[in-house]
């Protein structure tokens, strides 16, 4: 496995969103000439609206509407001046009222995203550190990353993990003046809360601890004057807390608000806060609507509105408790999340609900892990009890049908969210053709050699003999990362004809294997003291030693879909029984059928480095092969390879002595340690000795004729049963790299040796496609599909990569 290409994350998000858009559940347009908040027009239908973030319904309040209309008549559609120079005449009244609501100085911003970008770099000093909750809103994470340019350390903890947070605080307490923990008050997907009281207790223990809370989803529907969840728990805003609220969403208008009780910090932020200084100010209509809403928040009416919403939320909760629906977090917020597990199930469920007359939101990657897709339902004062009841009845009826349609069941959903099933009933059982047979073994010796080689033994180091060699090499070693679990899966039809076959390994991977080099450099410093820092057990098709097409599927077989479903079922069972934290399906060429299937099963696609191979003709000799190269590439070959070949002693070593083995191991280690773009654990020391005695392995060695005992390069090559030559790994002395063009020389010698052996195929593997193409290789795009239990480590890698 090699590192993901630079823009892979954005490509992955684009693919997931495109898939959801094609399924008709994302990037929709509301229809209709009017909007009342209770219903919404979608696809020529009027649906009950359970997707709003205007929980109190104030966006439809006539007082806010009239104020906005009046402001436009008096002041126009906008006030086109920077607020640093002069503010719209309506601003001062709004600021006075919002200040009165909170009882502390406030700063009004265009929106919360620009507010975070303006406030965080001003509030956090170069001597400070930032710790992010991994589910804190993207806008906070994005603003925090700006401080990497000032060498402010940014770290991350798992969601609401106070033990992990305390460990991070201890780490920075002797190094940094302030330690900022950044979190949401109410998290927008699951509707769960930040543990405010526990966090305050932690701040008593560590006076350096400061807090930055984004409470936009906790605004208005709770708290004194509707000032939100965080302040309702705090009672009073201390000077070590910065609090963000909103004037949009539940507030009913537009804009955001920072609350800061530290007067010195307040003046610093207000005087010059990036976008706070240079961005356009709120439009007159927005200011006027927000002022009208502030009047409501400052009146007893706000508590009446809160109570009405609370009754709706409690009613919805009561109804849900009478069902087996997988409610992910039970709380008092107006945000609910019903898990569906796989994206395909989520698409199906949302579309069924829309056909039944209910609009809900889809929760999807990257807001949640792909296998934690679900339906996000929000309750507002607009919703009436009869349609709330209708929604629950519709979900209870449609959920099992969505599961059945997408070949899954409720047990898998609960398992994906690490929840215990309610066990009143199982919505649906997985249905498989009883004529299909599954063979799952833990050693290749239990698999028929001829059958295996006919299915998967053609191109890599994973023919039957190669896998027997790997099993022996990656077992019984002293270090845990050198011991792998092997599993072999073959699915047959009733006539014992194979439909699908693969092999899998479970082993310890470095989490940053897929990360940028900069992230790996940072992490490797930590591993000097903690060698297993940021590592995980990974269940993978194939292994870290092999490259190639690890999955055989007979796409002409009428039961291929059922075969793939059985593969998924067995992967999930192995993931849990072998305690894996990630599943990786790797080394696929472009295949739309498999892509659609894997994505629908909760996998995200990432692009791997390109793969290279050479097909040789039956009667090829070296001269004929070279003649097929382009004029430019033949010139490259003569100048940088053939001319230097005369200075080298090239040998094919099949019975290396102990001194040579030590040199080979050292050369391989040089390359391994120098390649953080493919950051894996080293291989066990006994591996090279086992290659030495194995008839299918040989070494191509390079020594300068001027230093005959000095080995400067080696290619470790495997001779496959189907006449495939596999240069599996390379070793080099970097002191001689440029002088002798060692890597180019080894590539050429590999081709030369394959021709001598009358091989039909050379599997040149991943990376270095530029060098391989110049020697006649064909280059293929390769992809992997990844499924993780949560997004924590993916997001942590993003934080580290931004340094």
TrEMBL record:
Annotated Aminotransferase class I/classII large domain residues: 50-393
Keyword Cytoplasm recorded: no
Entry annotated with the keyword Transferase: yes
Cofactor: pyridoxal 5'-phosphate
Keyword terms of this UniProt record: Aminotransferase, Transferase
Origin superkingdom: Bacteria
Pfam family, any one: Aminotran_1_2
Name by which UniProt lists this protein: Aminotransferase class I/II
Source species taxonomy: Bacteria, Pseudomonadati, Bacteroidota, Flavobacteriia, Flavobacteriales
GO molecular function: transaminase activity
């Amino acid at each position: 496995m090699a590192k993901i290409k630079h823009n892979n994350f954005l490509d992955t998000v684009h693919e997931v969103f495109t898939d959801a858009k094609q399924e008709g559940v994302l990037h929709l347009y509301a229809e209709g000439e009017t909007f009342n908040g209770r219903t919404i027009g979608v696809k020529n239908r009027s649906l009950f609206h359970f997707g709003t973030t205007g929980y109190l319904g104030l966006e439809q309040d006539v007082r806010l509407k009239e104020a906005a209309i009046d402001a436009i008549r008096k002041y126009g559609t906008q006030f086109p001046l920077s607020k640093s120079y002069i503010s719209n005449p309506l601003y001062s009244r709004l600021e006075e009222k919002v200040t009165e609501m909170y009882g502390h100085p406030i700063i009004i911003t265009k929106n919360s995203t620009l507010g975070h970008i303006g406030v965080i770099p001003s509030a956090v000093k170069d001597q400070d550190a930032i710790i992010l909750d991994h589910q804190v809103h993207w806008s906070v994470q994005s603003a925090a990353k700006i401080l990497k340019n000032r060498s402010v350390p940014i770290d991350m903890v798992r969601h609401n993990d106070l033990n992990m947070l305390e460990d991070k605080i201890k780490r920075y307490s002797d190094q940094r003046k302030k330690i900022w923990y950044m979190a949401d008050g109410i998290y927008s997907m699951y509707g769960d809360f930040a543990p405010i009281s526990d966090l305050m207790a932690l701040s008593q223990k560590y006076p350096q601890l400061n807090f930055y809370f984004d409470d936009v989803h906790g605004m208005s529907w709770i708290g004194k004057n509707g000032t939100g969840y965080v302040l309702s728990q705090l009672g009073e805003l201390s000077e070590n807390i910065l609090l963000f609220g909103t004037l949009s969403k539940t507030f009913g208008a537009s804009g955001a608000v920072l609350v800061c009780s530290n007067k010195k910090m307040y003046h610093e932020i207000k005087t010059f806060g990036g976008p706070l200084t240079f961005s356009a100010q709120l439009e007159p209509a927005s200011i006027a609507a927000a002022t009208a809403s502030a009047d409501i928040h400052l009146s007893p009416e706000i508590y009446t509105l809160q109570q009405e919403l609370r009754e709706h939320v409690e009613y919805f909760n009561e109804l849900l408790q009478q069902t087996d629906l997988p409610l992910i977090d039970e709380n008092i917020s107006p945000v609910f999340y019903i898990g569906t597990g796989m994206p395909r199930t989520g698409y199906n469920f949302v579309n069924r609900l829309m056909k039944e007359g209910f609009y809900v939101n889809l929760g999807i990657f990257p807001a949640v892990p792909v296998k934690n897709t679900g339906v996000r339902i929000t309750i507002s004062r607009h919703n009436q009890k009869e349609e709330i009841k209708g929604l629950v009845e519709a979900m209870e009826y449609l959920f099992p049908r969505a599961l059945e349609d997408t070949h899954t069941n409720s047990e898998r959903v609960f398992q994906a969210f690490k929840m215990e099933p309610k066990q009143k009933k199982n919505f649906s059982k997985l249905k498989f053709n009883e004529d299909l047979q599954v063979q799952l073994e833990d050693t290749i010796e239990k698999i028929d050699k001829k059958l295996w080689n006919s299915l998967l033994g053609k191109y890599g180091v994973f023919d039957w003999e190669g896998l027997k060699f790997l099993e022996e090499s990656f077992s019984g070693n002293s270090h845990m990362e050198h011991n792998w679990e092997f599993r072999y899966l073959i699915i047959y039809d009733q006539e014992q004809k194979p439909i699908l076959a693969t092999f899998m390994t479970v082993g310890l991977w470095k989490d940053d294997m897929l990360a940028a080099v900069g992230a790996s450099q940072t992490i490797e410093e930590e591993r000097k003291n903690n060698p297993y820092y940021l590592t995980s057990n990974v269940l993978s098709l194939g292994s870290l030693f092999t490259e190639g097409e690890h999955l055989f599927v007979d796409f002409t077989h009428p039961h291929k879909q059922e075969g793939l479903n059985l593969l998924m079922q067995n992967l999930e069972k192995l993931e849990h029984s072998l305690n894996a934290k990630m599943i990786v399906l790797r080394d696929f060429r472009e295949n739309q059928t498999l892509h659609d299937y894997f994505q629908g099963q909760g996998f995200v696609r990432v692009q791997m480095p390109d793969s290279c191979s050479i097909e040789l003709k039956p009667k090829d000799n070296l001269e004929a092969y070279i003649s097929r190269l382009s004029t430019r590439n033949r010139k490259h070959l003569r100048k940088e390879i053939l001319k230097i070949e005369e200075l080298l002693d090239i040998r094919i070593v099949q019975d290396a002595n102990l001194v040579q083995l030590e040199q080979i191991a050292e050369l391989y280690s040089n390359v391994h340690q120098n390649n953080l773009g493919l950051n894996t654990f080293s291989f066990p020391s006994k591996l090279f000795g086992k290659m030495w005695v194995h008839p299918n392995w040989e070494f191509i060695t390079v020594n300068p004729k001027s230093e005959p005992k000095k080995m400067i390069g080696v290619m470790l090559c495997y001779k496959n049963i189907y006449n495939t030559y596999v240069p599996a790994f390379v070793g080099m002395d970097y002191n001689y790299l440029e002088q002798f063009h060692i890597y180019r020389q080894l590539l050429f010698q590999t081709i030369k040796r394959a021709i001598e052996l009358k091989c039909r195929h050379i599997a040149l593997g991943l990376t270095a496609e530029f060098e391989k193409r110049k020697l006649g290789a064909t280059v293929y795009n390769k992809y992997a599909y990844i499924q993780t239990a949560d997004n924590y480590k993916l997001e942590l890698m993003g934080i580290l990569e931004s340094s």
